[in-house]
Amino acid sequence: MAHYMVVLLDDKRLNALKGTGVEEKIVDLFGGALKAINIEVPEEAEKNIMAAFTSARIDSRGAITDVPVAFNRVLFEEIAKQKSIGPEVWNGVLARVDEIKEAAAKESEYLPSPDIDISDIEELQKEPHQKP
Fold first, then answer.
1. Which residue among 51, 87, 125, 130 is least crowded, i.e. fewest CB within 10 A of its CB?
2. Predicted local confidence at residue 117, as pLDDT
3. Domain tally for the chain?
4. What pLDDT is attached to residue 107?
């Protein structure tokens, strides 16, 4: 069974694909709220992806998911560079596996905590019983 990957597109990515043959392959998700490209993954590329990234899995739709963010970024870069979703894209992605792994390691090392102002909550905690 052939598997595929979903590449989500924001406005910047959509603009990068304007006027290319890939533009015709863009699909709507969630009633047009999201745009994406479904790109078929050749069997050999699939084996390499699954071996290189232990978090990767195949979901019930047959889509390869849970790859590092760096992988998705490189995949889009290759699509934009090649102006294609053919096998040449996978050759480019697989040639950059070491680069992807290095970036993925940094992703997992550092996840910044959100910067949230909780001073009002701290003030409430000083006097937990509210006055009417």
1. 130
2. 79
3. 1
4. 79
